[in-house]
């Protein structure tokens, strides 16, 4: 679930706002976006992938928000880890982008979402 927008790293490009399928963020003119609907986060990591300056931290727990130590996050490479390991941005040269491997999982999720209760 989205936990942090690191305001001092953010360049207010609003890419995270535009790519979020759950409309979790609210854009703020000339400022970092605000996490407005955290409970709607699907933990898809798209915001982290598209953030060109690694200003976001998404925790893998997709069910509940976690108490995140911002100092520990800043001291680690967590904000850049998923983007790097997915082969996005500068990591294109050193890490293969293998997100295509998720296609079966996405198809299964789509099918589940189309089932009527």
Automatic annotation (TrEMBL):
Give UniProt keywords alphabetically: 4Fe-4S, Iron, Iron-sulfur, Metal-binding
Q: Name one GO molecular function term.
A: 4 iron, 4 sulfur cluster binding
- Coiled-coil portions: none
Q: Which residues form the 4Fe-4S ferredoxin-type domain?
A: 1-30, 31-61
Q: Which domain of life is it from?
A: Bacteria
What name is this protein filed under? Ferredoxin family protein
Q: What is the lineage of its organism?
A: Bacteria, Bacillati, Actinomycetota, Actinomycetes, Pseudonocardiales
């Amino acid at each position: 679930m989205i936990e942090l927008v690191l305001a001092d790293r953010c360049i207010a490009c609003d890419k995270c706002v535009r790519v979020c399928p759950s409309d979790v963020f609210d854009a703020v003119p000339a400022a970092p976006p605000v996490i407005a609907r955290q409970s709607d986060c699907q933990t898809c990591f798209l915001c982290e992938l598209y953030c060109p300056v690694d200003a976001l931290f998404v925790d893998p727990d997709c069910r509940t928000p976690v108490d995140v130590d911002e100092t520990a996050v800043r001291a680690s490479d967590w904000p850049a880890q998923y983007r790097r390991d997915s082969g996005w941005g500068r990591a294109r040269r050193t890490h293969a982008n293998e997100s295509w491997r998720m296609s079966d999982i996405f198809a299964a999720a789509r099918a589940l979402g189309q089932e009527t209760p």
